[in-house]
Protein backbone atom coordinates (compact mmCIF):
# COMPACT_ATOMS: atom_id res chain seq x y z
CA UNK A 1 0.00 0.00 0.00
CA UNK A 2 1.56 3.25 -1.14
CA UNK A 3 0.28 6.58 0.14
CA UNK A 4 0.46 9.37 -2.43
CA UNK A 5 1.18 12.63 -0.66
CA UNK A 6 1.18 16.32 -1.45
CA UNK A 7 3.25 17.77 1.39
CA UNK A 8 2.69 21.42 2.32
CA UNK A 9 5.71 22.69 4.26
CA UNK A 10 7.29 25.80 5.82
CA UNK A 11 10.74 24.26 5.95
CA UNK A 12 11.94 24.47 9.04
CA UNK A 13 14.14 21.89 10.79
CA UNK A 14 11.44 19.33 11.49
CA UNK A 15 9.89 19.94 8.07
CA UNK A 16 13.20 18.86 6.51
CA UNK A 17 12.96 15.56 8.38
CA UNK A 18 9.36 15.15 7.23
CA UNK A 19 10.26 15.82 3.60
CA UNK A 20 13.17 13.37 3.73
CA UNK A 21 10.97 10.76 5.37
CA UNK A 22 8.34 11.17 2.66
CA UNK A 23 10.98 11.25 -0.08
CA UNK A 24 12.79 8.11 1.11
CA UNK A 25 10.05 5.86 2.50
CA UNK A 26 9.13 3.06 0.08
CA UNK A 27 5.56 3.24 1.43
CA UNK A 28 5.15 6.84 0.27
CA UNK A 29 4.83 8.36 -3.17
CA UNK A 30 5.82 12.00 -2.65
CA UNK A 31 3.85 13.67 -5.44
CA UNK A 32 4.72 17.31 -4.75
CA UNK A 33 5.88 19.75 -2.12
CA UNK A 34 4.03 23.03 -1.74
CA UNK A 35 5.70 25.66 0.37
CA UNK A 36 4.36 28.32 2.67
CA UNK A 37 5.45 30.91 5.19
CA UNK A 38 5.60 30.08 8.92
CA UNK A 39 8.78 28.81 10.48
CA UNK A 40 10.56 31.04 7.95
CA UNK A 41 9.55 33.19 4.97
CA UNK A 42 8.19 31.33 1.97
CA UNK A 43 11.29 31.82 -0.20
CA UNK A 44 13.54 30.38 2.48
CA UNK A 45 11.06 27.53 2.91
CA UNK A 46 11.03 26.84 -0.84
CA UNK A 47 14.83 26.86 -1.02
CA UNK A 48 15.21 24.51 1.93
CA UNK A 49 12.55 22.21 0.51
CA UNK A 50 14.21 21.95 -2.90
CA UNK A 51 17.60 21.54 -1.25
CA UNK A 52 16.69 18.52 0.85
CA UNK A 53 14.82 16.95 -2.08
CA UNK A 54 17.94 17.38 -4.21
CA UNK A 55 20.06 15.83 -1.46
CA UNK A 56 17.66 12.87 -1.46
CA UNK A 57 17.97 12.55 -5.23
CA UNK A 58 14.37 13.58 -5.66
CA UNK A 59 14.56 16.48 -8.11
CA UNK A 60 11.58 14.79 -9.76
CA UNK A 61 9.33 16.12 -6.97
CA UNK A 62 7.90 19.49 -8.01
CA UNK A 63 8.23 22.33 -5.50
CA UNK A 64 5.71 25.17 -5.60
CA UNK A 65 5.84 28.52 -3.89
CA UNK A 66 2.79 29.59 -1.90
CA UNK A 67 1.59 32.16 0.60
CA UNK A 68 3.83 34.85 2.02
CA UNK A 69 1.80 35.61 5.14
CA UNK A 70 -1.45 35.08 6.98
CA UNK A 71 -4.93 35.22 5.44
CA UNK A 72 -5.99 38.27 7.42
CA UNK A 73 -3.30 40.42 5.80
CA UNK A 74 -1.37 40.98 9.01
CA UNK A 75 2.43 41.03 8.73
CA UNK A 76 3.98 37.57 8.74
CA UNK A 77 5.95 36.62 11.85
CA UNK A 78 8.39 33.74 11.67
CA UNK A 79 9.80 31.24 14.18
CA UNK A 80 13.42 31.89 13.35
CA UNK A 81 14.29 31.73 17.06
CA UNK A 82 13.43 28.03 16.87
CA UNK A 83 14.60 27.11 13.36
CA UNK A 84 17.35 29.67 12.73
CA UNK A 85 17.26 32.61 10.32
CA UNK A 86 17.88 30.14 7.49
CA UNK A 87 15.32 27.64 8.79
CA UNK A 88 17.98 24.95 9.03
CA UNK A 89 19.65 25.84 12.29
CA UNK A 90 22.39 27.81 10.55
CA UNK A 91 23.27 24.84 8.30
CA UNK A 92 21.41 25.81 5.10
CA UNK A 93 23.20 26.16 1.77
CA UNK A 94 22.10 29.76 1.24
CA UNK A 95 23.66 29.84 -2.23
CA UNK A 96 21.36 27.03 -3.43
CA UNK A 97 18.95 28.21 -6.12
CA UNK A 98 15.77 26.15 -6.15
CA UNK A 99 13.82 25.19 -9.24
CA UNK A 100 10.20 26.03 -8.58
CA UNK A 101 7.02 25.33 -10.53
CA UNK A 102 5.43 28.09 -12.55
CA UNK A 103 2.18 27.27 -10.75
CA UNK A 104 1.60 28.59 -7.27
CA UNK A 105 1.11 26.16 -4.41
CA UNK A 106 -2.72 26.37 -4.50
CA UNK A 107 -2.72 26.02 -8.30
CA UNK A 108 -0.54 22.91 -8.11
CA UNK A 109 -2.73 21.35 -5.42
CA UNK A 110 -5.86 21.98 -7.50
CA UNK A 111 -4.36 20.65 -10.76
CA UNK A 112 -3.03 17.49 -9.13
CA UNK A 113 -6.40 16.89 -7.48
CA UNK A 114 -8.04 16.98 -10.92
CA UNK A 115 -5.42 14.68 -12.47
CA UNK A 116 -5.66 12.10 -9.70
CA UNK A 117 -9.09 12.49 -8.09
CA UNK A 118 -9.59 10.47 -4.92
CA UNK A 119 -5.95 9.40 -4.82
CA UNK A 120 -4.00 12.11 -3.07
CA UNK A 121 -3.37 12.65 0.62
CA UNK A 122 -2.80 16.27 1.52
CA UNK A 123 -0.42 16.52 4.44
CA UNK A 124 -0.02 20.08 5.73
CA UNK A 125 2.69 20.73 8.29
CA UNK A 126 2.81 24.54 8.24
CA UNK A 127 0.25 27.32 8.61
CA UNK A 128 -2.83 26.42 6.57
CA UNK A 129 -2.77 29.47 4.29
CA UNK A 130 -2.07 27.53 1.09
CA UNK A 131 -4.78 24.99 1.81
CA UNK A 132 -7.31 27.74 2.57
CA UNK A 133 -6.28 29.55 -0.61
CA UNK A 134 -6.77 26.36 -2.64
CA UNK A 135 -10.23 25.93 -1.08
CA UNK A 136 -11.10 29.53 -1.91
CA UNK A 137 -9.97 29.06 -5.50
CA UNK A 138 -11.82 25.77 -5.86
CA UNK A 139 -14.40 24.89 -3.22
CA UNK A 140 -14.88 21.47 -4.84
CA UNK A 141 -11.33 20.47 -3.84
CA UNK A 142 -12.47 18.29 -0.91
CA UNK A 143 -14.38 16.04 -3.33
CA UNK A 144 -11.10 15.00 -4.97
CA UNK A 145 -8.71 14.81 -2.01
CA UNK A 146 -8.53 11.38 -0.40
CA UNK A 147 -7.42 12.44 3.08
CA UNK A 148 -6.14 15.50 4.91
CA UNK A 149 -3.60 15.23 7.72
CA UNK A 150 -2.50 18.33 9.57
CA UNK A 151 0.43 18.80 11.91
CA UNK A 152 -1.25 21.22 14.22
CA UNK A 153 -3.16 21.84 17.39
CA UNK A 154 -2.99 20.75 20.98
CA UNK A 155 -5.91 19.03 22.63
CA UNK A 156 -5.22 17.80 26.16
CA UNK A 157 -1.67 19.16 25.96
CA UNK A 158 -0.48 22.76 26.37
CA UNK A 159 0.28 24.94 23.37
CA UNK A 160 3.78 25.90 22.34
CA UNK A 161 3.83 29.33 20.69
CA UNK A 162 1.31 30.54 23.30
CA UNK A 163 -0.05 28.83 26.41
CA UNK A 164 -3.15 27.95 24.39
CA UNK A 165 -2.05 27.45 20.79
CA UNK A 166 0.24 25.38 18.62
CA UNK A 167 2.36 27.43 16.21
CA UNK A 168 1.04 26.22 12.82
CA UNK A 169 -2.57 26.94 13.70
CA UNK A 170 -1.73 30.13 15.61
CA UNK A 171 0.11 31.57 12.59
CA UNK A 172 -3.11 31.62 10.56
CA UNK A 173 -6.21 30.75 12.59
CA UNK A 174 -8.57 32.15 9.96
CA UNK A 175 -7.12 29.82 7.32
CA UNK A 176 -7.28 26.88 9.72
CA UNK A 177 -10.94 27.57 10.47
CA UNK A 178 -11.73 27.61 6.74
CA UNK A 179 -9.95 24.26 6.36
CA UNK A 180 -11.93 22.84 9.28
CA UNK A 181 -15.21 24.10 7.82
CA UNK A 182 -14.57 22.58 4.38
CA UNK A 183 -16.24 19.35 3.40
CA UNK A 184 -13.50 16.92 4.26
CA UNK A 185 -12.31 15.05 7.31
CA UNK A 186 -9.03 16.24 8.77
CA UNK A 187 -6.72 14.27 11.03
CA UNK A 188 -4.90 16.54 13.48
CA UNK A 189 -1.50 15.35 14.63
CA UNK A 190 -0.73 17.84 17.37
CA UNK A 191 1.41 18.43 20.41
CA UNK A 192 -0.35 15.69 22.40
CA UNK A 193 1.65 13.20 20.33
CA UNK A 194 4.54 15.12 18.76
CA UNK A 195 5.88 16.02 22.21
CA UNK A 196 5.78 12.33 23.25
CA UNK A 197 7.68 10.21 20.72
CA UNK A 198 10.50 12.75 20.74
CA UNK A 199 13.91 13.00 19.15
CA UNK A 200 16.51 12.33 21.88
CA UNK A 201 20.31 12.38 22.08
CA UNK A 202 20.67 8.79 20.86
CA UNK A 203 18.70 9.64 17.70
CA UNK A 204 21.08 12.52 17.06
CA UNK A 205 24.08 10.22 17.49
CA UNK A 206 22.61 7.66 15.11
CA UNK A 207 21.96 10.32 12.48
CA UNK A 208 25.46 11.78 12.90
CA UNK A 209 26.94 8.33 12.32
CA UNK A 210 24.90 7.87 9.15
CA UNK A 211 25.31 8.84 5.52
CA UNK A 212 25.15 12.31 3.96
CA UNK A 213 21.44 12.70 4.70
CA UNK A 214 21.75 11.47 8.26
CA UNK A 215 24.68 13.78 8.91
CA UNK A 216 22.78 16.74 7.45
CA UNK A 217 19.82 15.96 9.73
CA UNK A 218 22.15 15.77 12.74
CA UNK A 219 23.66 19.15 11.85
CA UNK A 220 20.33 20.96 11.46
CA UNK A 221 18.97 19.34 14.64
CA UNK A 222 21.83 20.62 16.78
CA UNK A 223 20.49 24.15 17.40
CA UNK A 224 16.90 22.81 17.41
CA UNK A 225 17.87 20.53 20.33
CA UNK A 226 19.24 23.58 22.13
CA UNK A 227 15.90 25.35 21.74
CA UNK A 228 14.10 22.36 23.25
CA UNK A 229 16.54 22.27 26.15
CA UNK A 230 14.96 25.57 27.16
CA UNK A 231 11.50 23.97 26.99
CA UNK A 232 12.25 20.60 28.53
CA UNK A 233 15.50 20.84 30.45
CA UNK A 234 17.30 18.39 28.18
CA UNK A 235 18.60 18.34 24.60
CA UNK A 236 15.85 16.80 22.52
CA UNK A 237 13.23 17.87 19.96
CA UNK A 238 9.61 17.41 19.07
CA UNK A 239 9.33 15.31 15.91
CA UNK A 240 6.28 17.24 14.80
CA UNK A 241 6.07 17.24 11.03
CA UNK A 242 7.49 13.80 10.32
CA UNK A 243 5.00 12.25 12.73
CA UNK A 244 2.15 13.77 10.70
CA UNK A 245 3.63 12.17 7.56
CA UNK A 246 4.00 8.93 9.51
CA UNK A 247 0.37 8.93 10.64
CA UNK A 248 -0.85 9.82 7.12
CA UNK A 249 1.11 6.97 5.57
CA UNK A 250 0.48 4.39 8.28
CA UNK A 251 4.13 4.42 9.38
CA UNK A 252 2.97 5.58 12.79
CA UNK A 253 -0.09 4.11 14.45
CA UNK A 254 -2.61 6.34 16.16
CA UNK A 255 -3.80 4.41 19.20
CA UNK A 256 -6.31 7.05 20.34
CA UNK A 257 -7.85 9.36 17.76
CA UNK A 258 -11.47 10.22 18.53
CA UNK A 259 -13.64 11.86 15.90
CA UNK A 260 -14.73 15.09 17.57
CA UNK A 261 -16.11 18.55 16.76
CA UNK A 262 -13.21 20.95 16.16
CA UNK A 263 -13.31 24.73 15.92
CA UNK A 264 -10.36 27.10 15.60
CA UNK A 265 -10.37 30.11 17.92
CA UNK A 266 -10.13 33.20 15.68
CA UNK A 267 -10.73 35.73 18.46
CA UNK A 268 -8.01 38.13 19.58
CA UNK A 269 -8.18 36.76 23.15
CA UNK A 270 -5.81 34.48 25.07
CA UNK A 271 -6.98 31.42 23.14
CA UNK A 272 -6.41 32.81 19.63
CA UNK A 273 -5.27 29.96 17.44
CA UNK A 274 -6.35 27.24 19.85
CA UNK A 275 -7.62 24.13 18.08
CA UNK A 276 -10.70 23.84 20.26
CA UNK A 277 -12.08 20.31 20.30
CA UNK A 278 -15.00 18.87 22.18
CA UNK A 279 -13.21 16.20 24.19
CA UNK A 280 -15.93 15.60 26.75
CA UNK A 281 -16.34 12.11 25.31
CA UNK A 282 -13.20 11.21 27.30
CA UNK A 283 -15.51 10.51 30.25
CA UNK A 284 -17.56 8.00 28.29
CA UNK A 285 -15.19 6.00 26.04
CA UNK A 286 -15.56 8.46 23.15
CA UNK A 287 -19.12 7.93 21.96
CA UNK A 288 -20.01 8.87 18.38
CA UNK A 289 -20.72 12.61 18.22
CA UNK A 290 -23.34 13.56 15.62
CA UNK A 291 -21.88 15.84 12.97
CA UNK A 292 -18.27 15.42 14.08
CA UNK A 293 -15.80 14.41 11.37
CA UNK A 294 -12.28 15.53 12.33
CA UNK A 295 -9.89 13.21 14.16
CA UNK A 296 -7.80 14.49 17.07
CA UNK A 297 -4.84 12.16 17.50
CA UNK A 298 -4.30 11.89 21.26
CA UNK A 299 -1.87 8.97 21.36
CA UNK A 300 0.42 7.11 18.97
CA UNK A 301 2.32 3.87 19.42
CA UNK A 302 5.92 4.77 20.31
CA UNK A 303 8.62 3.79 17.86
CA UNK A 304 8.04 5.98 14.82
CA UNK A 305 10.89 8.33 15.67
CA UNK A 306 13.18 5.34 16.11
CA UNK A 307 12.24 3.93 12.70
CA UNK A 308 12.50 7.35 11.04
CA UNK A 309 15.98 7.82 12.44
CA UNK A 310 17.04 4.44 11.06
CA UNK A 311 15.62 5.36 7.64
CA UNK A 312 17.36 8.74 7.50
CA UNK A 313 20.66 7.51 8.93
CA UNK A 314 20.74 4.59 6.51
CA UNK A 315 19.81 6.56 3.41
CA UNK B 1 -5.24 23.42 62.78
CA UNK B 2 -8.67 24.83 62.05
CA UNK B 3 -9.39 26.53 58.73
CA UNK B 4 -11.82 29.43 58.97
CA UNK B 5 -13.90 29.58 55.82
CA UNK B 6 -16.32 31.95 54.15
CA UNK B 7 -18.06 29.70 51.64
CA UNK B 8 -19.59 31.32 48.55
CA UNK B 9 -22.17 28.96 47.06
CA UNK B 10 -24.86 28.65 44.37
CA UNK B 11 -26.52 25.70 46.05
CA UNK B 12 -26.81 23.19 43.89
CA UNK B 13 -26.49 19.48 44.70
CA UNK B 14 -22.74 19.37 45.08
CA UNK B 15 -22.76 22.72 46.91
CA UNK B 16 -25.02 21.13 49.53
CA UNK B 17 -22.40 18.44 50.11
CA UNK B 18 -19.69 21.10 50.34
CA UNK B 19 -21.68 23.14 52.88
CA UNK B 20 -22.39 20.06 54.99
CA UNK B 21 -18.74 19.02 54.83
CA UNK B 22 -17.66 22.48 55.97
CA UNK B 23 -20.38 22.63 58.63
CA UNK B 24 -19.59 19.21 60.08
CA UNK B 25 -15.80 18.85 59.77
CA UNK B 26 -14.02 19.44 63.08
CA UNK B 27 -11.08 20.84 61.09
CA UNK B 28 -13.22 23.65 59.65
CA UNK B 29 -14.73 26.74 61.22
CA UNK B 30 -17.53 27.70 58.83
CA UNK B 31 -17.73 31.44 59.41
CA UNK B 32 -20.40 32.33 56.88
CA UNK B 33 -22.10 31.28 53.68
CA UNK B 34 -22.59 33.83 50.95
CA UNK B 35 -24.92 32.87 48.14
CA UNK B 36 -24.92 33.63 44.46
CA UNK B 37 -26.68 32.74 41.25
CA UNK B 38 -25.40 29.96 39.00
CA UNK B 39 -26.66 26.42 39.38
CA UNK B 40 -29.98 28.05 40.33
CA UNK B 41 -31.23 31.58 41.00
CA UNK B 42 -29.81 33.29 44.07
CA UNK B 43 -32.99 33.01 46.14
CA UNK B 44 -33.18 29.30 45.58
CA UNK B 45 -29.47 29.04 46.39
CA UNK B 46 -29.96 31.02 49.62
CA UNK B 47 -32.92 28.86 50.66
CA UNK B 48 -31.07 25.62 49.99
CA UNK B 49 -28.01 26.91 51.83
CA UNK B 50 -29.94 27.88 54.95
CA UNK B 51 -31.89 24.61 54.78
CA UNK B 52 -28.86 22.33 54.85
CA UNK B 53 -27.22 24.45 57.56
CA UNK B 54 -30.39 24.10 59.65
CA UNK B 55 -30.38 20.35 59.06
CA UNK B 56 -26.78 20.28 60.27
CA UNK B 57 -27.75 22.25 63.39
CA UNK B 58 -25.72 25.21 62.21
CA UNK B 59 -28.22 28.06 62.31
CA UNK B 60 -25.33 30.02 63.86
CA UNK B 61 -23.74 30.33 60.41
CA UNK B 62 -24.94 33.55 58.74
CA UNK B 63 -26.27 33.27 55.21
CA UNK B 64 -26.08 36.30 52.92
CA UNK B 65 -27.78 36.86 49.61
CA UNK B 66 -25.61 38.02 46.72
CA UNK B 67 -25.62 38.54 42.98
CA UNK B 68 -28.60 37.69 40.80
CA UNK B 69 -26.75 37.39 37.52
CA UNK B 70 -23.49 37.94 35.65
CA UNK B 71 -21.32 41.05 35.88
CA UNK B 72 -21.88 42.03 32.27
CA UNK B 73 -25.60 42.51 32.83
CA UNK B 74 -26.63 39.66 30.54
CA UNK B 75 -29.61 37.57 31.64
CA UNK B 76 -28.70 34.86 34.13
CA UNK B 77 -28.86 31.29 32.87
CA UNK B 78 -29.02 28.46 35.37
CA UNK B 79 -27.97 24.80 35.37
CA UNK B 80 -31.34 23.45 36.45
CA UNK B 81 -30.98 20.58 34.00
CA UNK B 82 -28.16 19.30 36.21
CA UNK B 83 -29.36 20.29 39.68
CA UNK B 84 -33.16 20.34 39.24
CA UNK B 85 -35.43 23.38 39.22
CA UNK B 86 -35.13 23.48 43.02
CA UNK B 87 -31.35 22.94 42.95
CA UNK B 88 -31.69 19.82 45.07
CA UNK B 89 -32.69 17.27 42.48
CA UNK B 90 -36.40 17.71 43.25
CA UNK B 91 -35.86 17.03 46.98
CA UNK B 92 -35.80 20.61 48.33
CA UNK B 93 -38.18 21.76 51.03
CA UNK B 94 -39.64 24.57 48.96
CA UNK B 95 -41.72 25.80 51.92
CA UNK B 96 -38.59 26.49 53.98
CA UNK B 97 -38.12 30.20 54.68
CA UNK B 98 -34.44 31.08 55.15
CA UNK B 99 -33.17 33.65 57.61
CA UNK B 100 -30.74 35.86 55.71
CA UNK B 101 -28.38 38.61 56.84
CA UNK B 102 -29.34 42.21 56.27
CA UNK B 103 -25.93 42.66 54.64
CA UNK B 104 -25.42 41.53 51.08
CA UNK B 105 -22.89 38.82 50.31
CA UNK B 106 -20.12 41.30 49.32
CA UNK B 107 -20.86 43.45 52.38
CA UNK B 108 -20.61 40.43 54.69
CA UNK B 109 -17.33 39.31 53.09
CA UNK B 110 -15.84 42.78 53.51
CA UNK B 111 -16.98 43.21 57.13
CA UNK B 112 -15.70 39.79 58.17
CA UNK B 113 -12.37 40.49 56.48
CA UNK B 114 -12.02 43.63 58.62
CA UNK B 115 -13.00 41.83 61.82
CA UNK B 116 -10.58 38.97 61.26
CA UNK B 117 -7.83 40.24 58.99
CA UNK B 118 -5.44 37.56 57.73
CA UNK B 119 -7.54 34.76 59.19
CA UNK B 120 -10.24 33.90 56.68
CA UNK B 121 -10.13 31.54 53.73
CA UNK B 122 -12.51 32.50 50.98
CA UNK B 123 -13.76 29.38 49.21
CA UNK B 124 -15.89 30.18 46.17
CA UNK B 125 -17.70 27.30 44.49
CA UNK B 126 -20.09 29.20 42.22
CA UNK B 127 -19.73 31.95 39.61
CA UNK B 128 -17.35 34.59 40.97
CA UNK B 129 -19.80 37.51 40.80
CA UNK B 130 -19.96 38.06 44.58
CA UNK B 131 -16.19 37.97 44.93
CA UNK B 132 -15.71 40.42 42.06
CA UNK B 133 -18.38 42.68 43.58
CA UNK B 134 -16.58 42.59 46.93
CA UNK B 135 -13.31 43.49 45.19
CA UNK B 136 -15.01 46.37 43.39
CA UNK B 137 -16.47 47.65 46.65
CA UNK B 138 -13.17 47.30 48.49
CA UNK B 139 -10.01 46.78 46.42
CA UNK B 140 -8.01 46.31 49.63
CA UNK B 141 -9.87 43.05 50.36
CA UNK B 142 -6.97 40.82 49.22
CA UNK B 143 -4.75 42.30 51.96
CA UNK B 144 -7.03 40.82 54.62
CA UNK B 145 -8.01 37.46 53.10
CA UNK B 146 -5.69 34.61 54.03
CA UNK B 147 -6.32 32.36 51.04
CA UNK B 148 -8.67 32.02 48.10
CA UNK B 149 -9.76 28.64 46.78
CA UNK B 150 -12.02 28.41 43.76
CA UNK B 151 -13.94 25.46 42.43
CA UNK B 152 -13.54 26.32 38.79
CA UNK B 153 -11.70 25.82 35.58
CA UNK B 154 -10.29 22.96 33.59
CA UNK B 155 -6.63 22.81 32.71
CA UNK B 156 -5.54 19.61 30.97
CA UNK B 157 -9.10 18.28 31.15
CA UNK B 158 -12.07 19.16 28.92
CA UNK B 159 -14.70 21.66 30.02
CA UNK B 160 -18.19 20.68 31.06
CA UNK B 161 -20.69 23.41 30.19
CA UNK B 162 -18.87 23.96 26.88
CA UNK B 163 -16.04 21.99 25.26
CA UNK B 164 -13.65 24.65 26.57
CA UNK B 165 -15.07 25.93 29.84
CA UNK B 166 -16.11 24.83 33.30
CA UNK B 167 -19.55 26.08 34.37
CA UNK B 168 -18.65 28.34 37.33
CA UNK B 169 -16.11 30.33 35.36
CA UNK B 170 -18.20 30.28 32.17
CA UNK B 171 -21.20 31.76 33.99
CA UNK B 172 -19.29 34.98 34.71
CA UNK B 173 -15.90 35.15 32.95
CA UNK B 174 -15.59 38.90 33.50
CA UNK B 175 -15.95 38.44 37.26
CA UNK B 176 -13.47 35.58 37.23
CA UNK B 177 -10.93 37.67 35.35
CA UNK B 178 -11.24 40.46 37.94
CA UNK B 179 -10.69 37.91 40.70
CA UNK B 180 -7.61 36.58 38.90
CA UNK B 181 -6.24 40.10 38.43
CA UNK B 182 -6.65 41.04 42.10
CA UNK B 183 -3.67 41.00 44.42
CA UNK B 184 -4.09 37.58 45.93
CA UNK B 185 -3.12 34.04 45.08
CA UNK B 186 -5.98 31.78 44.03
CA UNK B 187 -6.00 27.99 44.11
CA UNK B 188 -8.14 26.55 41.33
CA UNK B 189 -9.73 23.20 42.03
CA UNK B 190 -11.14 22.34 38.63
CA UNK B 191 -12.37 19.48 36.50
CA UNK B 192 -8.91 17.90 36.28
CA UNK B 193 -9.43 16.70 39.84
CA UNK B 194 -13.18 16.91 40.53
CA UNK B 195 -13.89 14.44 37.71
CA UNK B 196 -11.35 11.98 39.18
CA UNK B 197 -12.15 11.31 42.86
CA UNK B 198 -15.81 10.91 41.96
CA UNK B 199 -18.94 9.95 43.84
CA UNK B 200 -19.85 6.38 42.83
CA UNK B 201 -22.72 3.98 43.57
CA UNK B 202 -21.14 2.69 46.78
CA UNK B 203 -20.93 6.23 48.15
CA UNK B 204 -24.63 6.67 47.46
CA UNK B 205 -25.42 3.43 49.27
CA UNK B 206 -23.35 4.45 52.26
CA UNK B 207 -25.09 7.82 52.44
CA UNK B 208 -28.53 6.22 52.07
CA UNK B 209 -27.73 3.91 54.99
CA UNK B 210 -26.66 6.86 57.17
CA UNK B 211 -28.45 9.32 59.41
CA UNK B 212 -30.80 12.14 58.42
CA UNK B 213 -28.03 14.12 56.70
CA UNK B 214 -26.65 11.12 54.84
CA UNK B 215 -30.12 10.14 53.67
CA UNK B 216 -30.81 13.70 52.46
CA UNK B 217 -27.53 13.67 50.52
CA UNK B 218 -28.44 10.34 48.94
CA UNK B 219 -31.84 11.70 47.91
CA UNK B 220 -30.49 14.87 46.28
CA UNK B 221 -27.71 12.91 44.56
CA UNK B 222 -30.12 10.53 42.86
CA UNK B 223 -31.07 12.77 39.90
CA UNK B 224 -27.54 14.22 39.84
CA UNK B 225 -26.18 10.69 39.29
CA UNK B 226 -28.62 10.32 36.39
CA UNK B 227 -27.24 13.47 34.79
CA UNK B 228 -23.69 12.10 35.05
CA UNK B 229 -24.79 8.82 33.52
CA UNK B 230 -25.32 10.83 30.36
CA UNK B 231 -21.78 12.19 30.63
CA UNK B 232 -19.95 9.06 31.72
CA UNK B 233 -22.10 6.04 30.91
CA UNK B 234 -22.55 5.12 34.58
CA UNK B 235 -24.39 6.51 37.58
CA UNK B 236 -21.89 8.66 39.45
CA UNK B 237 -21.15 12.34 40.05
CA UNK B 238 -18.34 14.85 40.14
CA UNK B 239 -17.65 15.87 43.74
CA UNK B 240 -16.76 19.39 42.63
CA UNK B 241 -17.52 21.82 45.41
CA UNK B 242 -16.71 19.65 48.40
CA UNK B 243 -13.29 18.88 46.94
CA UNK B 244 -12.53 22.60 46.84
CA UNK B 245 -13.47 22.83 50.52
CA UNK B 246 -11.33 19.75 51.15
CA UNK B 247 -8.28 21.24 49.42
CA UNK B 248 -8.76 24.59 51.21
CA UNK B 249 -8.90 22.91 54.62
CA UNK B 250 -6.21 20.31 54.02
CA UNK B 251 -8.75 17.45 54.05
CA UNK B 252 -7.72 16.64 50.48
CA UNK B 253 -4.10 16.71 49.41
CA UNK B 254 -3.10 18.32 46.14
CA UNK B 255 -0.29 16.19 44.75
CA UNK B 256 0.32 18.34 41.68
CA UNK B 257 -0.53 22.03 41.80
CA UNK B 258 1.90 24.17 39.82
CA UNK B 259 1.92 27.94 40.25
CA UNK B 260 1.21 29.23 36.75
CA UNK B 261 -0.03 32.32 34.91
CA UNK B 262 -3.82 32.18 34.59
CA UNK B 263 -6.08 34.31 32.43
CA UNK B 264 -9.82 33.94 31.93
CA UNK B 265 -11.06 34.06 28.34
CA UNK B 266 -13.64 36.85 28.18
CA UNK B 267 -14.04 36.82 24.39
CA UNK B 268 -17.26 35.72 22.72
CA UNK B 269 -15.43 32.93 20.86
CA UNK B 270 -15.39 29.16 21.39
CA UNK B 271 -13.15 29.49 24.43
CA UNK B 272 -15.27 32.01 26.33
CA UNK B 273 -14.97 31.21 30.02
CA UNK B 274 -11.91 29.00 29.64
CA UNK B 275 -9.51 29.25 32.56
CA UNK B 276 -6.46 29.62 30.35
CA UNK B 277 -3.28 28.63 32.14
CA UNK B 278 0.28 28.49 30.90
CA UNK B 279 1.01 24.80 31.48
CA UNK B 280 4.08 24.57 29.25
CA UNK B 281 6.12 23.91 32.37
CA UNK B 282 4.75 20.36 32.19
CA UNK B 283 7.65 19.57 29.84
CA UNK B 284 10.25 20.72 32.36
CA UNK B 285 9.09 19.64 35.85
CA UNK B 286 7.20 22.90 36.42
CA UNK B 287 9.93 25.49 36.77
CA UNK B 288 9.16 28.71 38.67
CA UNK B 289 7.42 31.16 36.33
CA UNK B 290 8.20 34.81 37.06
CA UNK B 291 5.06 36.73 38.03
CA UNK B 292 2.84 33.66 38.32
CA UNK B 293 0.91 33.31 41.58
CA UNK B 294 -2.19 31.18 41.01
CA UNK B 295 -2.18 27.44 41.65
CA UNK B 296 -3.82 25.05 39.19
CA UNK B 297 -4.58 21.81 41.02
CA UNK B 298 -3.91 19.05 38.50
CA UNK B 299 -3.98 16.03 40.81
CA UNK B 300 -5.18 15.16 44.29
CA UNK B 301 -4.57 12.08 46.40
CA UNK B 302 -7.63 9.84 46.06
CA UNK B 303 -9.70 9.21 49.16
CA UNK B 304 -11.31 12.55 49.97
CA UNK B 305 -14.69 11.52 48.57
CA UNK B 306 -14.54 8.33 50.65
CA UNK B 307 -13.81 10.27 53.83
CA UNK B 308 -16.46 12.89 53.04
CA UNK B 309 -19.05 10.17 52.55
CA UNK B 310 -18.17 8.66 55.93
CA UNK B 311 -18.47 12.07 57.58
CA UNK B 312 -21.86 12.85 56.03
CA UNK B 313 -23.29 9.36 56.52
CA UNK B 314 -22.19 9.29 60.15
CA UNK B 315 -23.39 12.78 61.05
Give the secondary structure arrangement, pairings included.
The structure is a homodimer of 315-residue chains.
Chain A: E1 3-9, H1 13-24, E2 28-35, H2 42-55, E3 63-65, H3 80-83, H4 105-115, E4 120-124, H5 129-137, H6 141-144, E5 145-151, H7 167-171, H8 173-181, E6 186-189, H9 191-194, H10 201-208, H11 212-232, H12 240-249, E7 254-256, E8 259-260, E9 262-264, E10 275-277, E11 294-297, E12 299-300, H13 304-314
Parallel strand pairs in A: 1-2, 1-4, 2-3, 4-5, 5-6, 6-11
Antiparallel strand pairs in A: 7-12, 8-11, 9-10
Task: Please provide a written account of the structure.
The structure is a homodimer of 315-residue chains. Chain A has helices at residues 13-24, 42-55, 80-83, 105-115, 129-137, 141-144, 167-171, 173-181, 191-194, 201-208, 212-232, 240-249, 304-314; strands at residues 3-9, 28-35, 63-65, 120-124, 145-151, 186-189, 254-256, 259-260, 262-264, 275-277, 294-297, 299-300. The first copy, chain A, is an alpha/beta fold and 315 residues long. The first copy, chain A, has a single domain (3-196, 239-297), classed as Ribonucleoside hydrolase-like (Inosine-uridine Nucleoside N-ribohydrolase, Chain A, Alpha-Beta Complex), CATH 3.90.245.10. In chain A, the strands form three sheets. Chain A has an eight-stranded mixed beta sheet with strand order 3-2-1-4-5-6-11-8, sandwiched between helices. Chain A has a two-stranded antiparallel sheet with strand order 7-12. In chain A, α5 (129-137) packs across α8 (173-181) and α10 (201-208) packs antiparallel against α11. Chain A is globular. The two termini of chain A are 21 Å apart. The model of chain A has no long low-confidence stretch (mean pLDDT 98). Chains A and B meet through loops of A and loops of B.
Amino acid sequence: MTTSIILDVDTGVDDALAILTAALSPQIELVACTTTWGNVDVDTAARNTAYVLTMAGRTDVPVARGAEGPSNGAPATFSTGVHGEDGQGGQADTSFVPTLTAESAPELIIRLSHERPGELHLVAVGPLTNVADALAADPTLPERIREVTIMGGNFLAPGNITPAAEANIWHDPEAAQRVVEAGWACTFVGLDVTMRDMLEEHHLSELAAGGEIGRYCARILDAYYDFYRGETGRRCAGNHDALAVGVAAGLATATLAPVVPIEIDTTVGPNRGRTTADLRGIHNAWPVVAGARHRAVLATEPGFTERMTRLLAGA
